[in-house]
Amino acid sequence: MSLLQYRLWYGDGSFKQTQKYQQQLDLLQQQLTVKQKRNKALEAEVLDLRKGKEAIEETARHDLGLIKQDETFFQVIE
To answer: Which residues contact 13 (CB under 8 A, 6 or more apart)?
Structure first.
């Protein structure tokens, strides 16, 4: 019985060690939350930049007749 008491208080899985692990876990979860928010913000920024670039290119092609290098322009008249 004393061996079980010793492990409970001082050995692997003791109350103190469990509390320490819980504190480390809480800290890591907080860091993860911060990094997930940062990643979402970066992802949204990338999507905006992609859409913005595509929208600008589409407008330039339609309204200004943009033709990229190595492209061939065909105009169909009906």
So the answer is: 7
Q: What is the pLDDT of residues 33-68, one digit of tens each?
A: 999 999 999 999 888 888 888 878 888 888 888 888
pTM above 0.70, yes or no: no
Residues, the chain = 78
Which tokens in the block code for residue 43? 């992802």
| CA distance linking residue 21 with residue 7, whole number of Å | 16
Give exposure, 52-70, as e/b (b: 16+ Cβ within 10 Å). Answer: eeeeeeeeeeeeeeeeeee
Helix, strand, or coil here: 49? helix
Predicted confidence (pLDDT) per residue in 19-30, tens digit: 899 999 999 999
Rounded Cα distance, 38 and 45, in Å: 11
| Alpha carbons 72 and 33: distance in angstroms, whole number | 49
